[in-house]
């Protein structure tokens, strides 16, 4: 009866182990194969024992014995392999070395040799439970087997022990269960060895160990671990989370939820009630949809996104729900700040150009017609101001102008920074009271630290005439108004009126005609004679004149400033240079000693390569460079001085004579002169002409002439109108003379006639 019972139990265990082996083999886990072999290796010892228990002859029992012993070695061998796999550390190396496996293999051979030497065990027959049973009697060879197996199992236990100590608490379970089972089975097995009972019940433990290992390595998902991890994730988020049971009672809240509701207690129900106080009945919100709530005002304003949702089981029954509150205030502030930065000028905090234009354009679409002005506000000579007082002071000036605009504006005004030193505004007409603004601007002071400086501000206004007007056109008009008082430091306000409009139209007309005027030779150089100490004409300056088919004779004053402004001066200058070259080529035979000076505008240097253009003309007309003199003004040298000086140096190297025009009208003349690569200094008499104290003027001219001579530069005075001036300048040592005293600028034919007459 006992025998049969155990045979059945063993058979069931074998069947279970087979199933475990099969399942592990099929499992996706990398450890699956090792576990499969381990499960299967548990079968032979159980099977061996089953045979021993059921044996009817000593021979049968002996076969059972061999199966049992070899099976035990296989168990230990696979346990070692499993341990290596199961307890593998990050670096992936085997923990238990291969020599353990070699020892076990040697043990198997040693045990099999028992067939020949009978040194390890033998079978004895005993009577138990009233029946004959076979038991094995260990001999000395058995000790080798025990030492190797117990040694290996001890190593395995040590590995499990160390792992279970080292790993975080949540994982300990995985190792401790196997360790404890291993210890129990080992004790049980040892107990059997000494008990001399005919049936090895510890085989049950051995099989159960296999099944346990299978469970823990293949099936066991540490649920508690997952729970903890998920809970940690939820606790760690900044999102407030509240979980509700199926009946709607709050069962869990995380830390942010407590912080949000200012509830310090653990009681989830209270936190939930406080949340309802804040946001109302959250369970009435639509499911899985974030709803925005704004709480508090001003600095303390907070924006929350609140959502709720439910959990369902496999049958669609609600098993719980959650509420989630996300504080997006910081994110919202960030976006608002980015929007602000994109639309505002960083320095002054007012709108930037694009946004000002957009806002004004929106305003125009509404009702600006007739009731609003567009204004352009400019700081006079801002560049000079910046240079003189430093960038920091310049920045302070811009900020204070922006503040001034803020002060004068209300919510109906739009204002912003349009360019470096220009602001723009669109304001209701009633907001502008001219006297107040004029008076305010008269005393506009910029202060930074202890320094205070007066700032000249000009404002140009224009009316809005149509409601579909382009903002940039309006600003152009306002700027033209402003530009009309550019040099007037007493006036601060100007309107785009008929005069300015007419001038604008004139400029447009003239600019549009330049190209054809050049092509049709309406623009010609007039030549003004230049004389030497004896009054003999030695050359001429080419000065542009426009003989206009409708407007008649036009002096440079009518068109040159405009073209200098809009950059078209380059076309005009090229035309005059070429005309001068033509004349010189023509003169080669007639008047080979005469030169012509041509003007080079400051703008030319920026737009074209003056040197190569002029040089190619000289080559084209086959004239010697020294007969084409180059006049540059001080102002053209003011910016990028070094680069320009190089250009002038090149001109001189090529044989041109370079003249410094209008000397004395700029503001750093003397300082510049010492480094300037020029041959002739043209001193403008006009700037001395109006001087009250003629004596002082004379002293200045005399010394400038002396200075030029000392520097090896030829002095030339222009604007010489009387014989008295001529004589005096002659005495002072001046070398060349130009002015109405000799002649006003003349058309080519008249100039040549004058030459003939003088001869
Ligand atoms: P600028 O180069 O200083 O030319 C001398 C100006 O003084 C000329 O005026 C000339 O007519 C005037 N002038 C000559 N003698 C006397 C005098 O005795 N008394 C007085 N009061 N004035 C005298 P204009 O021809 O009207 O030219 C004015 C300015 O226009 C020139 O000043 C020059 O800066 C510019 N300009 C003329 N033609 C050209 C040109 O082809 N290209 C460029 N870029 N500028 C030119
Ligand atoms: Ca000139
Ligand atoms: Ca001049």
Describe this structure in words.
This protein has 759 residues and is α/β, with parallel strands linked by helices. It has four domains: 219 residues, Up-down Bundle (Rhopdopsin 7-helix transmembrane proteins); 103 residues, PAS domain (Beta-Lactamase, 2-Layer Sandwich); 153 residues, Reverse transcriptase/Diguanylate cyclase domain (Alpha-Beta Plaits); 239 residues, TIM Barrel. The protein contains 30 helices and 23 strands. Helix 4 packs parallel to helix 7. The protein is elongated. It binds ligand C2E and calcium ion (CA) (2 copies). One calcium ion binds next to strand 20 and strand 21.
Taking pLDDT < 50 over at least 5 consecutive residues as the criterion, the unreliable ranges are none
Strand order of the largest sheet: 15-16-18-19-20-21-22-23
Measured by DSSP, the beta-strand proportion falls in 15-25%
Number of strands: 23
Largest sheet: 8 strands, mixed, barrel
- Say what the CATH topology of the largest domain is: TIM Barrel
Number of domains: 4
| Average residue-wise pLDDT | 90
What is the tally of helical segments?
30
CATH level-4 homologous superfamily of the largest domain: EAL domain
Shape: elongated
Helix content: 40-55%
The CATH architecture term of the largest domain is Alpha-Beta Barrel
Termini gap:
159 Å
Query: Which ligands appear in the coordinates?
Result: ligand C2E, calcium ion
Structural class assignment: alpha/beta
């Amino acid at each position: 009866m006992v025998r049969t019972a155990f045979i059945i139990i063993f058979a069931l265990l074998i069947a279970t182990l087979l199933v475990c082996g099969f399942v592990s083999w099929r499992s996706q886990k990398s450890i699956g194969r090792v576990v499969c072999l381990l499960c299967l290796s548990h079968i032979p010892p159980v099977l061996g024992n089953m045979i021993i228990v059921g044996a009817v002859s000593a021979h049968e029992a002996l076969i059972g014995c061999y199966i049992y012993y070899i099976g035990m070695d296989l168990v230990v061998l696979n346990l070692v392999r499993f341990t290596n796999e199961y307890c593998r550390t990050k670096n992936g190396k085997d923990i238990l070395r291969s020599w353990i496996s070699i020892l076990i293999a040697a043990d198997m051979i040693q045990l099999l040799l028992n067939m020949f030497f009978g040194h390890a065990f033998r079978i004895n027959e005993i009577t138990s439970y009233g029946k004959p049973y076979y038991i094995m009697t260990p001999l000395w060879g058995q000790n080798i087997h025990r030492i190797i197996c117990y040694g290996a199992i001890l190593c395995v236990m040590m590995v499990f022990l160390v792992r279970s100590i080292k790993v975080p608490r949540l994982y300990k379970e995985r190792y401790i269960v196997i360790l404890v089972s291993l210890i129990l089975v080992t004790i049980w097995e040892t107990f059997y060895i000494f008990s001399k009972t005919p049936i090895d019940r510890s085989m049950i433990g051995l099989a159960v160990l296999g099944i346990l290992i299978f469970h823990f390595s293949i099936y066991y998902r540490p649920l508690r671990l997952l729970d903890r991890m998920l809970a940690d994730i939820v606790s760690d988020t900044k999102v407030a989370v509240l979980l509700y049971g199926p009946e709607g009672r709050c069962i869990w809240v995380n830390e942010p939820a407590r912080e949000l509701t200012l509830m310090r207690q653990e009681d989830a129900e209270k936190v939930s009630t406080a949340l309802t106080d804040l946001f109302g009945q959250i369970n009435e919100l639509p499911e899985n949809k974030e709803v925005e709530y704004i709480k508090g005002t001003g600095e303390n304003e907070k924006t929350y996104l609140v959502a709720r949702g439910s959990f369902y089981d496999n049958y669609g029954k609600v098993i719980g729900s959650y509420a989630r509150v996300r504080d997006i205030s910081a994110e919202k502030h960030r976006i608002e700040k980015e929007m602000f930065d994109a639309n505002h000028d960083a320095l002054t905090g007012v709108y930037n150009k694009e946004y000002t234009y957009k806002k004004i354009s929106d305003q125009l679409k509404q009702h600006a017609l007739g009731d609003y002005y567009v204004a352009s506000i400019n700081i006079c000579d801002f560049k000079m101001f910046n240079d003189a007082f430093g960038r920091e002071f310049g920045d302070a000036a811009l900020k204070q102008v922006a503040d001034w605009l803020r002060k004068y504006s209300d919510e109906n005004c739009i204002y912003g920074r349009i360019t470096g030193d220009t602001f723009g505004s669109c304001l209701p007409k009633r907001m502008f009271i001219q006297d107040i603004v004029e008076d305010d601007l008269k005393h506009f002071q910029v202060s930074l630290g202890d320094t205070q400086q007066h700032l000249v501000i000009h404002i140009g206004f224009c009316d809005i005439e149509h409601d579909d007007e382009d903002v940039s056109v309006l600003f152009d008009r306002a700027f033209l108004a402003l530009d009309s008082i550019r040099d007037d430091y007493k006036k601060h306000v100007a309107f785009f009126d008929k005069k300015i409009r007419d001038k604008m139209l004139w400029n447009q007309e003239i600019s549009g005609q330049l190209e054809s005027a050049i092509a049709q030779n309406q623009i010609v150089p007039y030549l003004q004679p230049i004389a030497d100490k004896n009054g003999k004409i030695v050359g001429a300056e080419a000065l542009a004149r426009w003989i206009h088919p409708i407007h008649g004779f036009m002096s440079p004053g009518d068109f040159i400033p405009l073209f200098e402004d809009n950059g078209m001066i380059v076309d005009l200058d090229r035309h005059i240079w070429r005309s001068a070259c033509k004349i010189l080529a023509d003169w080669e035979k007639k008047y080979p000693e005469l030169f012509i000076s041509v003007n080079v505008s400051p703008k030319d240097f920026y737009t074209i390569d003056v040197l190569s253009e002029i040089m190619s003309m000289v080559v084209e007309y086959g004239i010697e460079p020294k007969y084409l003199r180059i006049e540059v003004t001080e102002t053209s040298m003011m910016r990028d001085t070094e680069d320009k000086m190089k250009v002038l140096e090149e001109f001189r190297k090529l044989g041109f004579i370079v003249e410094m025009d209008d000397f004395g009208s700029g503001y750093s003349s003397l300082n510049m002169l010492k480094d300037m690569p020029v041959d002739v200094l043209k001193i403008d008499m006009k700037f001395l002409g109006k001087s009250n104290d003629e004596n002082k003027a004379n002293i200045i001219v005399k010394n400038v002439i002396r200075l030029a001579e000392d520097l090896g530069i030829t002095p030339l005075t222009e604007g010489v109108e009387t014989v008295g001036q001529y004589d005096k300048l002659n005495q002072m040592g001046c070398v060349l003379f130009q002015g109405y005293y000799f002649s006003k600028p003349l058309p080519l034919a008249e100039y040549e006639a004058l030459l003939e007459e003088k001869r």
